[in-house]
Specification:
- The chain is α/β, with parallel strands linked by helices.
- It has 2 domains: about 250 residues, Type I PLP-dependent aspartate aminotransferase-like (Major domain) (Aspartate Aminotransferase, domain 2, 3-Layer(aba) Sandwich), CATH 3.40.640; about 130 residues, Aspartate Aminotransferase, domain 1 (Alpha-Beta Complex), CATH 3.90.1150.
- It has 15 helices and 12 strands.
- The strands form 2 sheets. A 7-stranded mixed sheet has the order 1-7-6-5-4-2-3, with helices on both faces.
- β5, α8 and β6 form a beta-alpha-beta unit.
- The longest helix is centred in the last third of the chain and has 21 residues.
- The relative contact order is 0.13.
């Protein structure tokens, strides 16, 4: 799969023609000429499917090239790119949900998505039913919901959901399945092939991979994407063409970056599991992980994220403040290794009960492993964990 992904990504968005430029041009124009009134009628009647361009808030050639490339990587018919991951998630949920509808979501869910469902959509009469990751398929089988929102692996506990089972239960109950696959990337798992309706990515993370890009994506069937496109237009949440160019460039090195990050992450997770003072390590590549066997079946590797707990807030803060090589920063998936404390970043605003349900404790640290030498990263961790 890695070789195929590399081949697809190497030609991502490349213009056609005998004498075409090798890389995708950045089209900065805000508006586009039409040959005739009939051509504009065609655009108005067919919209997204027309292949025409009216205004860059609605569509842009560079953005469309990046969307085609990502759809190919993910094995989907169509993709939409947004100005952020939360823009993508918001557009999807605003398309799929109305007042009085119910959304099923995993208790282990990115804080931004959780707050969107609980605090914002809840104001407009959308009901949220949370289910532990291992109970998602059974929860969806009960029916009554319009959409199931889940992650695999989850942020930050790296639980792995049985994607095929959840997707099957959703189809049987008439529920749209929406999976945030940011942590895995198309390199490590292919959710659409397992039956998921819609895949979401924060392209800011691994897909771009250089901590200099902000974006989000949705990938799925042409019919579903075309339902979401008018909502994206209404929200004005389209990706900037320069950001789309950066994404195309980043996807070309996706496989080589993620393979290196997975190798280093496994080495670091094994080291942490043996390190005195570390209470627990969360990494699907370790046999101690509750979803280890599922991850082996469902993913080609366990990913570049490693989470661990040192037990208390005080010990976590002390460890965090001592880091020298690993940057103290939010986000993930870049070439630089980063450390975040979930209670101060991704899960700010969770109640104590919500944190417990999500499996997050106050002594938890989340590592995004970059491309530095793994030995240097382990030395930094060892020094920082000294009592």
């Amino acid at each position: 799969m890695a070789d195929k992904i590399t081949t697809i990504a190497a030609h991502a968005g490349t213009p056609g023609g005998d004498n075409a430029p090798l890389t995708t041009p950045i089209v900065q124009s805000t508006t586009y000429r039409f040959a005739s009134a009939s051509q504009l009628v065609d655009y108005n009647e067919r919209g997204f499917a027309s292949g025409l361009f009216l205004y860059s808030r609605d569509e842009n050639p560079t953005v469309r090239a990046a969307e085609r490339a990502l759809a190919d990587l993910e094995g989907g018919e169509r993709a939409l790119l947004f100005s952020s991951g939360m823009g993508a998630m918001s557009a999807a949920l605003l398309t799929l949900l109305s007042s009085g509808d119910e959304a099923i979501c995993s208790t282990a869910l990115y804080g931004g998505t959780w707050r969107l469902l609980r605090d914002l959509l809840g104001r407009f009469g959308v009901n949220m039913r949370s289910v532990p990751p291992e109970g998602l398929a059974a929860g969806c089988a009960r029916g009554g919901a319009k959409v199931c929102v889940f992650e695999s692996p989850t942020n930050p506990t790296l639980r792995v959901a049985d994607i095929e089972a959840v997707a099957k239960a959703c189809r049987a109950a008439g529920i749209v399945s929406l999976l945030d696959s940011t942590f895995a990337t198309p390199l490590l798992q292919r959710p659409l092939g397992l039956g998921v309706d819609l895949v979401m990515h924060s392209t800011s993370k691994y897909l771009n991979g250089h901590s200099d890009h902000l974006g989000g994506a949705l990938v799925g069937s042409a019919a579903l994407i075309e339902r979401i496109w008018p909502v994206q237009v209404a929200l004005g949440a389209i990706m900037d063409p320069a950001q789309a160019y950066d994404l195309i460039r980043g996807m070309k090195t996706l496989a080589v970056r993620v393979e290196r990050q997975c190798t280093s992450a496994l080495r670091i997770a094994r080291w942490l599991a043996e390190r005195p003072g570390v209470d627990r390590v969360f990494y699907p590549g370790l046999p101690s992980h509750p979803d280890h066997e599922l991850a082996r079946r469902q993913m080609s590797a366990a990913g570049g994220m490693v989470t661990f707990s040192v037990g208390t807030r005080e010990r976590a803060f002390r460890f965090y403040d001592r880091l020298r090589v690993i940057a103290r920063a939010a986000s993930l998936g870049g070439v630089e290794s980063l450390c975040s404390l979930p209670i101060l970043t991704s899960h700010v605003g969770y109640s104590a009960d919500e944190l417990r349900a999500a499996g997050v404790d106050e002594g938890m640290a989340r590592l995004s492993i970059g491309l530095e030498d793994a030995g240097d990263l382990i030395a930094d961790l060892d020094r920082s964990l000294q009592d």
